[in-house]
Amino acid sequence: MQAIGDLEIVYEDAALLVVNKPAGLLTVPLERKGAAPSVQSQIETYLRPFGKRRPFVVHRIDQDTSGLVVFAKDAATQSRLK
């Protein structure tokens, strides 16, 4: 199974990326916790070599919760899934 740092990639295709988020990690960066690492920032670093600018979060889970998190690789996919 492929990984992004501590994140296990559960599923990936041309439009979606599903990762297993560990407890203690933010799903997306927060202004009030600017220095805290997030799933979104780790995925952004992973996608950069493929010419993608940023992942689009489909849903979030709390920092202290572990579980699967879905990111779209483009805005149109995110819109369809929301």
Helix- and strand-based class? alpha+beta
| H and E order | EEEHEEH
Instruction: Enumerate the strands of the largest sheet in spatial order, edge to edge or round the barrel.
Output: 1-2-3-5-4
Q: Treating each run of at least 4 consecutive H or I residues as one helix, how many helices?
A: 2
Distance between the termini: 27 Å
The low-pLDDT segments are: none
Report the helical percentage: 10-25%
Instruction: Give the strand content.
Output: 25-35%
* Strand count: 5
Average pLDDT reading: 91
Largest sheet: 5 strands, antiparallel
Radius of gyration: 12 Å
- Overall geometric form: globular
Characteristics of this structure?
82 residues; alpha+beta; five-stranded antiparallel beta sheet; globular
Task: Describe the protein.
With 82 residues, the protein is of the alpha+beta class. 20% of the residues lie in helices and 27% in strands. The protein contains two helices and five strands; from the N terminus they run βββαββα. Strands 1-2-3-5-4 form a five-stranded antiparallel β-sheet. A hairpin with a 3-residue loop joins strand 2 and strand 3.
Topology:
Layout: E1 3-4, E2 7-12, E3 16-21, H1 39-47, E4 56-57, E5 67-72, H2 75-81
Antiparallel strand pairs: 1-2, 2-3, 3-5, 4-5
